[in-house]
Structures are given as C-alpha cells and as structure tokens.
Amino acid sequence: MAEDRTQGQKPPVERRKHKRIPIALKIFLGYLITIVLVLISNFYLFHKMKILMELGNQIGRSVEFVAQERDVQHLADDMNRQYLAYISAYSQKFKDEYTKKYVAEAPGKILNKIEQIRQVENSLHFLDPQILEQINGYLDTLAMAVSPPERQRWDEAFKNLAFLLEKSIVDAQAQTQRLLARSREITASAIRGGILLMLAMLVLSAGIAYLIAKRISRPIAHLRQATRYARQGKYNIRVPFESHDEIADLTADFNAMMDALGELDRMKAMFLSSITHDLKSPLYRVRLGIENLVDGIHGSLNPEQMRTLEQILTDLDTLSRLIYDILDLQKLESGRFELHLEDVKIEDFVRETVRKHAISFADKGVGLAMKLKLKDVVVRMDVRQIERVFENLLSNALKFTPRGGKVVVIGGVDGDYVHFVVKDNGPGMTKEEAERVFDKFYRASTGKNVSGTGLGLAITKQIIEAHRGKIWVETEPGRGSEFHFLIPLAR
Ligand SMILES: Nc1ncnc2c1ncn2[C@@H]1O[C@H](COP(=O)(O)OP(=O)(O)O)[C@@H](O)[C@H]1O
Ligand SMILES: [Mg+2]
457: CA distance to ligand 2 center in Å? Predict the structure, then answer.
C-alpha cells in the first residue's frame, strides 16, 4: 500500500535530458531575486525623497522671498513717509535755513531708497518678470515725481507699487502653502507605497524561499521514504525524478543501487531456494535411514547408540523445519502463494488451536489462558495458515517466558476486524528490537540461548498480510510482550 504512494508519483522514473541546475545556483537565484526586489523598493523611496528635497528647496526659496518682499515693504513705507515729510517742508517755501537744507537733501535720499528697492527687486529670481517690469515702471514714475515734486503722481504710483508688493507676497505665501500641501501628499504616498511594497516583497520573497525549499526538500523526502522501504527489504521501489540538480544525481545513483540490491536479493533467494530444494530429498533419506536404525530393522542397538540417534533425529527436525520455513517464506514473498479461503467460526477454531498447545505449556510450567469474545463471529481465512500464526506466536511466547510465567490469548471484534492478542509476561524487548522482529532471520537478544531460525515472525507477518490484516508488537524490556494482529471479518 505504502509503496504505491512513492511509485504512483506523477514525475517520471526515467531521467529526461535537461539542463542541470545545481542547488547552490537555485539558492543564489532566489537571493538575487529578493535583492532585486529590495533594490526596486529602494529606488522607489529614493525617487520620492528626491522630489521631496526639491520641494523643500522651493519652499525655502519661497519663504525667503516673502521675507525679502516684507523688507522691501518696510523700505517703501519709510520712503513714502520721507516723501510726505519732504512735500510738507517743500510747501513751507524754505522758511528757514534748516528747512532749505532739508528740502535740498531729501530728493537724493528718496532716489537712493528707490534705487535700493529696485536693486532688491531685480535680485529676486522668484519674482514674476511681468510683475518686475511693472514694479520697475512704478519706480521710474516715483523717481520722476520727486523733483520737482508731483504729489498726485507719486501717490498713485506708490499705491500701485504697494499693491503689487502685497500681491507678490500673498502669491508667494499661497505658493508656499501649495508646496507644503504637495510635500505632505508625497510623504504620505511614499509611506503608503513603501508599506505596500514591503508587504509585496515579503510575500514574494517568502513565496520564492518556500518554492525553492520545497523543490529541494521534496525529492529528499521521497528518497528518505524509499530508503526506509529498502531497509525493510523492499527493493522494487524507484524514486521519481523531480529536479535537475545534485538530488537528481543522487536519485539516479539510488535507483541504480536499488536495481543492484534487487538483483542481489533475487540471486540470494534463488540460491537459497535451490539449495534448500536440493537438501530436501537427501534429508528425507537420512531421516528414513536413521528411523530404520532406531526401529531396529538393521539389528538391535545398545542404549548409548539409541540416545545418539535420537539426538540426531531432533537435530534433523530442526534442520528440516529451517528448510521448510525458508521455502515457505520464499513462496509467501514471491506472491505465488495461494490462500485456501473458507468461512470459519473463529471462536471454536481458536479454542481448539490453543488447546493443542496446552500440554507443552503444562510441561514447562507456564500458564495458558484464553479470553475470547467471539461468539458466532465468522472469519474468511485459510485455516491451515492462521493455525500457523497461532502456532508461531504461542511457541514464541512459551519459548521466551520462564517457568511460572503466564500467557493469555485475547480475542474480540474491533470494527471490521477480529483483533487477537497473544500476551506473555516474559522478558519483553527494546524498542529497536521490536522494530525488527518481523524481519527475516532476525533474532533479538531474548533469542540468544534458545533454538530458532528467526523466520517464524517473518512468515507470520506474510500470512497476516496475505489475509489483508495487520500485525504489530507492543513490548517493553522486563514487562512482557503483546503480539497483536487483525484479520478482516467475513462480509
Ligand atoms: N514473546 C516473545 N518474547 C520475547 N522475545 C520474543 C518473543 N517473540 C519473539 N521474540 C524475539 O523475536 C525473535 C524472532 O522471533 P521468530 O521470528 O519467531 O524467530 P525464532 O522464534 O526462530 O527465534 C526471537 O528470536 C526473539 O528474540
Ligand atoms: Mg519463533
């Protein structure tokens, strides 16, 4: 079932020719894209800042202009006062020396002021040239109205000049306000844009990082999964190619290694099965011969000879059990194995099977009990094989549980399955051992001084899986073992 997940992948198992992109390059490109994104947002902010700086300069100039125009206003007011004083002195017809001197000097001073105003105005770059021209015109008129004094002409020109000065100040202030408003607007939009850009960049670079990480880690996960299957002796796994980098190279090597391992496994199996096959008949003949000897067909034997021959027969038993176990496992694993399914009343079947072991349990002094809740439950199964499952589990429980211990067989219905537990209070196993007990030829530390082949549980597992069931062990060192298995109920 689990194999299908890896094998059923869409990506091709054959490696297609494609430009190779090393992992380092992928990561580098990812960084590069992120850096470009950062640069783009920096350029945006830089651009906005440049506009703001230019606006700041304009605002500064505008404020300065207003200050200068205000100075000019003061100067002009002074000048006007002076003119008015001059006019009134002039109309007194030089009553005394002082007035005479004053009237003589005043025009020069006034013209001087006019000149000052003209200079300041001409130096103001910010001033509209048309207005400047008008101001200069009024200044000319004012200069002409000084001497001889023409009061009416002066007043009119001065009124116009004052109006123009005020107007240019008001305009400049309005312009300052506009510039300030714009700079506020630009600042706000830069903040908004900056935040949006940052968010977009965050999402984009996180997305890119995720994609790259996924493209790298997914094939590694598949390799890892396949390695786990291989550890369980399943060599028919091939890892699909999903990238064009070092991992693809690794995948190619891995698949090649699996080919080699599979081939090795097949050769080993063939070798084992041909040897065991060839051993079967000579073994049979040896046993026959020895049985004849024991039966006294070739003459009577002394007790010493008899004991030796009986020992040989026991050893032969072990040997043939090993050979048959290997052959059976081979058959089960190759899938050439056929189940002879029939509907069985499971409770009766289990009681009978367990009872067969009662004597050997009693001999060793280990208790054997049953807790079955399976009345009228029917299971479709191969009787001979399930018998073997119980045999293997019970013989293990007996073998590894010391005298005085206790073994319980528990059975009940669990969903669509019958659930059995063979539970002992023997030595138990470590987690690492428990993970491997279903492997072929594996024997845990508990099996050190006890005879066995390490094939019993491997065969048991194959039988249960052939029935579409499940088997597992729950155990802890010093606290006994529970072997659980499920068999589907008959529909
Ligand atoms: N009930 C049990 N208690 C402790 N260890 C067990 C038990 N059943 C199995 N084992 C361990 O699992 C190993 C594999 O069991 P099995 O495949 O039946 O091989 P065998 O019985 O030939 O040793 C045993 O060698 C033993 O170390
Ligand atoms: Mg065994």
Answer: 6
Taking CB atoms within 8 Å and a gap of at least 24, the contacts of 282-291 are 283/316, 283/319, 283/320, 283/323, 286/316, 287/313, 287/316, 287/320, 290/316
Kindly state the tokens that stand for 207.
């997305």
- What pLDDT shows up at residue 18? 75
Residue 447 CA: which ligand is closest? 1
* Alpha carbons 457 and 468: distance in angstroms, whole number: 16
- Residue nearest to ligand 1 atom 9, measured at CA: 396
| Predicted pLDDT at 159 | 97
Q: Is 425 in the pocket of ligand 1 (CB under 6 A)?
A: no
Residue 457 Cβ < 6 Å to ligand 1: yes
Reduced to 3 states (helix: H, G, I; strand: E, B; else coil), residue 75 is: helix
pLDDT, tens digit, 9 for 90 and up, residues 102-137: 888 999 999 999 999 999 999 988 888 999 999 999
477 lines ligand 1 (CB under 6 A): no
Share of the chain above pLDDT 70, in %: 97
Helix (H) or strand (E) holding 4: helix 2-7
Distance in angstroms (rounded) separating the CA atoms of residues 317 and 328: 16
Cα(110) to centroid(ligand 2), Å: 129
Domains detected in the chain: 28-196 (1.20.120), 246-334 (1.10.287.130), 342-488 (3.30.565.10)
Q: Output the pLDDT for position 12.
A: 61
Q: Which are the contacts of 313, defined by CB distance < 8 A and separation ≥ 6?
A: 287, 290, 291, 294
Q: Is the pLDDT of residue 3 over 50?
A: no
